[in-house]
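quick one, 164 residues, struct below
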Amino acid sequence: MAVNYQIAQQQFAMLYERNYQLVYRICYTYMKNQYDAEDCLEDVFVKVYSGNIEFNDENHEKAWLTVASINTCKDHLKQFWRKKVVADELIENRATVRYKDNYLLQEVMNLPEKYKDVIYLHYYLGYKSEEIASMLKRTASTVRNQLAEGRKLLKIRLEESEDE
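---
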């Protein structure tokens, strides 16, 4: 019994090492600060560890962790206490954002959710529209349409900000 427990711990440790950077990047992008991103990262891996989840291969593992990360961040962002944070505190926290100089990423993250998710998964994580459709439980044509609409909206926003 103890041997099986050690094997499970070793397998989890290897899974964590393979994927913690991916999960952290996704969480950081959504949460916009190190501490909330770390909380979400922890929650995702607690789900894996306590959920007795089995992955078919590394692609399945990566896809599952990507969707779990996005959903965990969205859940955290919906929490009541988070909505009550004072604006000044948010501005202070943003000073620590590693991606603060990446204006394009900030603009992507300001898009409506349906566009933000597909654009981030496609352009920043490299998923194809069929894979995104599977992850988000949408049709591939819907994902492609949302990518096209999101790009148009992003272009308009970027052009407007250049004019200012």
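The longest helix spans residues 2-31.
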